Amino acid sequence: MSFDGWSTILVLGGIRSGKSAFAESLVASGKPVRYLATAATGADDPEWAARLAAHQARRPQDWITEELAGDPGRLATLIAEAEPDDTLVVDDLGGWITEQLNLGVDSLAVAVRDLAAAVRASAGRTIVVSPEVGLSVVPPTALGRAFADEIGVANQALAEACDAVVLVVAGQPTWIKRPPPGKTLPAQVLQEPTQTLPALSTGMVIQPGMDLPMPDEGAAAQARNRLRRLDLPGAGFGALAATVAFAAATQGNPIPAAWQAVRVLLLHGDHEGAASAGDAPAEAERRAREARAGDGVLAALAAESKATVQVVDVPAGRPLDIEDALTAVEVDQALAYGWRLAEDAADAGVEVLVLGACGAGTETAAAAVTSAITGTEVVALLARVTAPDGRFDDGAWIARCAAIRDGLQRTRSRPRSAHDLLAALGGGDIAVATGILLGAASRRTPVLLDGPVGVAAALASRDIGGQARHWCLLPDDGGHPTVRHAAGVLDLVPVLDLRLGLGEGATALAALPLLRTMIGIAGTLPIHPALREDGPDPAPELGD
Q1: Which residue in 323, 504, 533, 541 is the catalytic one?
Q2: pTM greater than the 0.85 cutoff
Q3: 504 annotated active-site
């Protein structure tokens, strides 16, 4: 797992809030962790001992657990002595405070100050878990009040010392302190899980006929003209010239800069019913979990490209053959949420977005939306279903076709606007993706499309803001029939024809180094001497 830049995180939460599990998830697939357990073993309390045993059972076997009960003073020492490659999880600060009180420490304030100083100065990477008790009533006992007071003071000191602070409520993290400039957080930290999308104000009314910016076609024309005059030993950039022109148009500069700040938005959401025939929701969940933890092909390619990965959980789509995938309100919320994701990326200095998705039934929903918008027969859009062992599952393919046809039949007399189709057939992933494309266009941020969900969203976005598709680049269609057909309708010519099928988001990342290289070379190569204004005139053509 990559931890580039970040050092310390304070994870707060109430009893049974999921704070410990969340803290562990941040480092679950990284290097072996030193787990600093602060609580007493509970030898005289079977229920407490059972809780501790459950915590121990879920930790990876290669983690090293150090019990600090009886010697809480060691905690600051261990943190202060951590090496740069060390990863520590302190669970939790409440146990540490309890031990201090039980031992009758003369000055707990001094101990808290020393602990905060150790966290602030530590060379290692540290996650401190602590109970948030300030939202409850004042305890009725003197000891309870003393604990609440001391943990409140300690939490404030640690929150000030740590790079970031997160509050976990009902298993859902809310980041209340972001890292300072120069610090970044692991992929999990960028996640904002949403099973019910929040109602958000984007500053814009997302409705058909939006007037969004267009890329600078003048800059693109100048870039294409310049490419023809570069000092190259060969015939030129070929199909990659389109990437240079795209970068020039989206940057408004005929000599564009190669993209540096890249963010992958991986939308994770399933589709219920026959749409997901042949797909295992557990497999999609595993892929999303790997991406959060920094494992798998997507994370490996992101690390190579120095891209950040943001995993976004979206609501599941209901069975499209039986009922609408989303309500009208949910579509509005999903569009607004996607718009905000794009705005957040632009505000963070992201120069290009990579849009991908994972989830059971995503291909079916994308094909359904594409079929409804373009009028194309379903069988021409659905790729064959491949089982994990490589076998074709034609029964699942037939079930998917039937689901789409039933969905189209169910909605045949309904309005055909983007909002209507996203509600009837799309689901959370395609609706959020549509909002991302619209929001990215509004902030003049290019998007690399990858896979069926992205192109289906691009089709839907035309009805709302037709300019959005001009901010999209398709690195490779992967040979997928939905992607190829939608790309033709959108006039998006794939830059490459490698037929990569690495998964949504991963294919674009695999192509990214080449795209970056061509943009960079185009900006640094000089004009051919024979074509410079101050150089010799071109040789006359034969026959002159």
Answers
A1: 504
A2: no
A3: yes
